[in-house]
Amino acid sequence: MSPKKLVAKDSVGKGKKATITVEVKKEIIAKHERGVRVVDLVREYGRTSSTICTILKRKEQFKTLEVAKGVTKVNKKRPQILEEVEKLLLVWMNERQLHGDSVSEALVCAKAKKLYVDLVRKTPGASSEEEDIFKASRGWFEKFRKRSGIHSVVRHGEAASSDKAAAEKFVPEFQEFVAEKEFLPQQVFNCDETGLFWKKMTKRTYITQEEQSLPGHKPMKDRLTLVLCANASGDCKVKPLLVYHSENPRVFKALRKYLEEKQLPLKALLVLDNAPAHPPQMRDKLYPENQFITIKFLPPNTTPLLQPMDQKVIANFKKLYMKALLERCVDVTDNTGLTLKEFWKNHFNILGALRLIDKAWEGVTRRALNSAWRNLWPEGVPERDFEGFGPASASAPVEDPEVHLVDDIVALGQTLGLELDAADVQELVEEHSEELTTEELLELQKEINQEEAQEFSSGEEEVWEDAAASSSEIREVLGMFEKGHPKTKTKAIVNRKVLSESREKKSQ
Q: DSSP assignment, residue 346?
């Protein structure tokens, strides 16, 4: 849920305004070329007409620039490869912090050096001596930090040792805040983002081995970033959303509707982790209709300890997705003439994956969502069992539903003739959060650039003229994500290629 506009829209008299980033300058140019008037741009971005006109006069220069997101100034002497390093570095930092991992100054510098070496080695004619030109020094880090405006970076050393202390300090503060504001468990929500490889099996299966041996195999194209959101009482689950640039995420509409239906006071608390995608100014940029939302950020580097969604909820969701996927495979192989290999290669696409995502999220129980708040807000977790069975006996062992879920996944895999055990299931869940390689970062950056280019060229309207799928197919799948819940950007869910493939397979 990262804000699309990174420049503060301060009014006159509130001090020095933030410098306009190259990214926002390109956005202003694109909007003007689509017909937006200068006076409207002045009002939207809170700048003088002379500033907007100066940007438009230099539009050819800005349109050709390829710089890291957040950069405000461009030094002509900076090597292009270093610009590429910083772009990939920001993508890597965002991905890492979305998963709650610590990012320190030393870690950023080490990753920058590795990216630089990898890119040099990919450059034709480059020598090994060129790998040592860039030192990734503290001086470079300071300039990079100022250029990109990054925050939530631990300045010295690793932060893991301070996680527990920061969490222990924050918990009573949070509980006092909730009590003072008189928030009920139904009014306290948590959002978290996670990566999901929607078309991935464990490493030991023959399908995975065959895919990896294919030339041009790009696993990043099968990766989605989802937002999962639910309240502390566990009775309100917002439909999974795909991450896309949005200043006021439409998830807020779902919160308003839920509170109104439950006849609760129109106020809600949204707990978010301290990641670059969730900057502090997000609180001040909500639309008037969303002012009933109070946003509270967890301390840096406490996500594994306090973030409710990170307390087995996301892992449980991914296992449920895996189970739903294997159930679908069994159903196809039992009731059609398709083999598993044929279905996987030619018939399983993102439209089918969306149905499975919805099914998996529905399978996350109210009890699991509520108990995930035990570390942060134990008062919000009642002693009695949510399912109506009462508290567990001290003498009776409590069965872990996760164990049965893993057993079901293993049994389904074996039914399909796949080599699969409990360790493989856990490994696959963890692989969804593995650190991205340089090649994967390059692919992800390419996808980001393509999305931004599409947005600039088409504005807020989506282009569907090449879509081969019928409107009923589109409505059927997107309806799961829209009915009674916020809509997400359709181009972030299904693209023209996927829709065309879907229709082509049906015709066969």
A: I
Beta bridge partners of 229: 191, 238
Cβ neighbors of 234 (< 8 A, separation 6 or more) are 365, 366, 367, 368, 369, 370, 386
Q: Summarize the confidence of residues 414-429 as an average pLDDT.
A: 86
* Angle, helix 105-122 to helix 438-458, in steps of 10 degrees: 90
Residue 40's SS3 state is helix
Task: Tell me the C-alpha distance between 94 and 115, whole Å.
Answer: 15
- Distance between CA atoms of residues 323 and 312, nearest Å: 16
End-to-end Cα, the chain, rounded Å: 39
For residue range 160-198, list pLDDT tens digits in order. 445 788 899 999 999 999 999 999 999 999 998 888 888
Angle between helices 422-431 and 313-335 (to 10 degrees): 120
* Greatest mean pLDDT range, 146-150, 410-414, 475-479: 410-414
| Predicted model pTM | 0.64
Contact predicate 356/328, CB 8 Å = yes
- Phi, psi dihedrals of residue 323, rounded to the nearest 5°: -65, -45
Cβ burial of 204 (10 Å; 0-12, 13-18, 19+) is middle
- Pairing assessment for the beta strands 223-231 and 188-197 based on DSSP bridges: antiparallel
Asked whether the beta carbons of 231 and 187 are under 8 A apart, the reply is yes
Q: What angle do CA 363, 205, 212 make, to 5 degrees?
A: 110
Which residue type sits at 213? S
